[in-house]
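Input structure tokens:
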């Protein structure tokens, strides 16, 4: 879902960063820190805020294609009902990433809980570096 760069007040402070994306199933009893996640090979490497929002949206759509999907908003579970809800979340995720921040999303997909971690990293922080970022947009 491409959006103009000014969508929701996007900024360019993300320049010099990229994101390591991870999808984790049922990690409630075994939380993993950011540092430990970054030691693992990411599911994919994303190179801009639009790719971040797109990757999250695709995961949510894949889950929702089979069952109703709920996500955490203001510390309570809310159902994602339609394309408008997804578009709103896409904009929020893109805005967060455009500030150079990490994005964390919990999705309840009965009977499982799925966590999406999209970790913002600089080249200096990156163990795997950006060699694959341009080829793995999602």
């Amino acid at each position: 879902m491409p959006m103009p760069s000014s969508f929701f007040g996007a900024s360019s402070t993300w320049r010099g960063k990229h994101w390591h994306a991870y999808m984790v199933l049922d990690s409630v009893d075994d939380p993993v820190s950011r540092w430990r996640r970054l030691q693992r090979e990411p599911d994919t490497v994303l190179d801009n805020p639009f790719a971040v929002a797109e990757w999250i949206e695709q995961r949510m759509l894949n889950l929702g294609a089979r069952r109703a999907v709920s996500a955490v908003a203001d510390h309570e579970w809310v159902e994602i009902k339609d394309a408008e809800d997804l578009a709103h979340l896409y904009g929020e995720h893109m805005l967060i990433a455009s500030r150079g921040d990490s994005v964390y999303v919990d999705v309840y997909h009965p009977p499982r809980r799925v966590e999406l971690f999209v970790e913002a990293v600089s080249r200096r922080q990156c163990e795997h570096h950006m060699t694959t970022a341009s080829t793995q947009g999602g």
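The mean pLDDT is 75. DSSP finds three helices and six strands in the chain.
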